[in-house]
Write a structure and sequence with these properties.
Largest sheet: 4 strands, antiparallel
Shape: elongated
Distance between the termini: 36 Å
Strand content: 35-45%
Structural class: alpha+beta
Strand order of the largest sheet: 1-4-3-2
Number of helices: 1
CATH class of one domain: Alpha Beta
Helix content: 10-25%
Number of strands: 4
Order of helices and strands: EEEEH
CATH architecture of one domain: 2-Layer Sandwich
Length: 91
C-alpha cells in the first residue's frame, strides 16, 4: 500500500547569480526545471525530486512512496515541478 508523499521544500536566495531575474514587460521569468523519479523494483519503493533554478531563486522538492511505479514517480516529478513553479517562482 502506498504511503502519503512527504514533500520537502528548500528555498534559497541566489541573488549572487548573473542576471537580475526580472522579466521584461509581458514576459514570464526564465526558470530551468530539472526532474527525476524512479523506484527500486517496479513496483516497489520509490521517489521523485525536483529542482527549479531562477536567476534569483532556487527551489527543491522531493517525496516518496513505499509502493509505487517508475512511471508514476516520473510524471509526479513533472507535476510537482509545475506546482512549485507557480507557488515559488511566480509569486
Amino acid at each position: 500500500m502506498a504511503s502519503k508523499a512527504a514533500d520537502r521544500l528548500v528555498n534559497s536566495d541566489l541573488s549572487r547569480m548573473e542576471g537580475n531575474g526580472n522579466p521584461t514587460h509581458g514576459q514570464m521569468p526564465h526558470v530551468e526545471i530539472y526532474t527525476d523519479g524512479g523506484c527500486e523494483a517496479n513496483p516497489g519503493p520509490g521517489g521523485y525530486g525536483v529542482l527549479l533554478l531562477h536567476p534569483r531563486k532556487r527551489a527543491e522538492a522531493s517525496g516518496g512512496f513505499r509502493l509505487t511505479t517508475n512511471n508514476r514517480m516520473e510524471i509526479l516529478a513533472a507535476i510537482k515541478s509545475l506546482e512549485l513553479t507557480q507557488r515559488e517562482m511566480l509569486a
